[in-house]
Design brief:
With 117 residues, the chain is mostly beta strands. 0% of the residues lie in helices and 55% in strands. It has no helices and eleven strands.
């Protein structure tokens, strides 16, 4: 069982940066691949970024590639999402997600990011 708690959201102006954090419970954090998703008002949840258990493999949605960076610190049981050059269309609730072997069952409660123009 893994529990995830996101933090770091807020209200910023376009062009600013934010760093989201997601802290996981449990002793086997490094065995989980971690992902960030987001859900904008009136839209479905969409994939943002992925990082493998050892941090060696990352991938991004096309809409954030080159602006967002996913990273993790396994000693701190934490995954991060550094968001740069934020745009109003990045406004959403951001969720942390954990899984392994193709099953991604664990979700955090979400953190709100609002980008004003």
């Amino acid at each position: 069982q893994v529990q995830l708690v996101e933090s770091g959201g807020g209200l910023v102006q376009a062009g600013a940066s934010l760093r989201l954090s997601c802290e996981a419970s449990g002793r086997t954090f490094s065995s989980y691949n971690m992902r960030w998703y987001r859900q904008a008002p009136g839209k479905g949840r969409e994939f943002v970024a992925h990082i493998s258990g050892n941090g060696g493999v990352t991938s991004y949605a096309g809409s954030v590639e080159g602006r967002f960076i996913i990273s993790r610190d396994n000693a701190k049981n934490t995954v991060y999402l550094q968001m740069n050059r934020l745009k109003p269309e990045d406004t959403a609730i951001y969720y942390c997600n954990a899984g392994s072997r193709g099953i991604y069952d664990y979700w955090g409660q979400g953190t709100q990011v609002t980008v004003s123009s």
